[in-house]
Please model this.
Amino acid sequence: MDTEIIRIFEENIDAGLIKKAGDIIKQGGLVAFPTETVYGLGGDALNPDSSRKIYAAKGRPSDNPLIVHISKWEDIDLIVANVPEAARKLAKAFWPGPLTMIMKKSDAVPGETTGGLDTVAVRMPVHKTALAFIEAAGGYVAAPSANISGRPSPTSAKYVIEDMKDRIDMIIDGGDAGIGLESTIVDLSGERPMILRPGFITKEMLEEELGLVDTDPTIFAGDSKEPPKAPGMKYKHYAPKGMLTIVNGPEEEVVEYINVKLKEASFSGKKTGVIATDETADRYEADSIKTVGSRQDESMIAHRLYTILREFDDEGIEIMYSECFDTGGLGQAIMNRLLKAAGHQLINI
Ligand code: AMP
Ligand code: MG
Model:
């Protein structure tokens, strides 16, 4: 299949191109599009064939449900059986934005879209191109991240093209994704709200609206016997091709430890890389040293992380070490993704 690649600027959205993209979805095709979190791989959420095509294009297991993207609040009524009060509050505070809410689904949503579950995940993105595209597509776009299953989520069109060219009908290039990590997922279908995936909207922010919010305990446990509540969190995910280890401890000792390990790896002929911070970058010796920015600037760390993992892949880096980051606020999402990328290999010194 030939993939058409178009460029749409958020500041100046071309109505003709948006219509063309929307029509592809209405006809059962697939279009990758930019959002503020990462790029999405969109299909008609109400068409079971479209959802099947999404799983096939990504190589994604079909028990891993898709997030349904909407462009206006009223549209939620068709796909959610009973909109809880908590959802209204959160929508008021955080929609449009990087928050996904899980609720009981209506009959309008096919089981193919929800991986057979009786709940549906819904998000309203804030990215203007995404909103215009969803509207033009009929209002309900099922979209997981636009990467081949198991690879880091794409934060720019370049990486979508790398993974999805010739597998889907169209790619909308909208430049870099601002946030760079996937949305926060909160489950509102149970007794108490529960975070299934941490993201830019933090636990503290949710608790300000709803009171106590639980966090799925399997999120940070590498060896949990329990399956995670978001089916997708159980799969190897966000993974670079090489081997990544995270090192936690006092700054000086971390730098020293990583340098020793890098030297060993390079003696045995391996190509090495480090995920460093502005504070430490010039103290490392490796084939490739990448900084996530200042340790203090968590938004920048989130923004840079997946790009760095992809760059290491492009450079053929085989052994990688990363510093560890704080786990409060946005740090929770950063460490969740980093730990998954490292297959939970964390060394405490
Ligand atoms: P992605 O779209 O690639 O960011 O992945 C979507 C994530 O949302 C996966 O981890 C899914 O397992 C999760 N998800 C989607 N729908 C549901 C649902 N109804 N219940 C629990 N998790 C869900
Ligand atoms: Mg994904």
Residues 64-65, 67, 102, 114, 117, 119-121, 144-145, 182, 185, 196, 230-233 surround adenosine monophosphate (ligand 1) (CB under 6 Å). The first strand starts at residue 4 and ends at 7. The chain has ten helices and 16 strands.
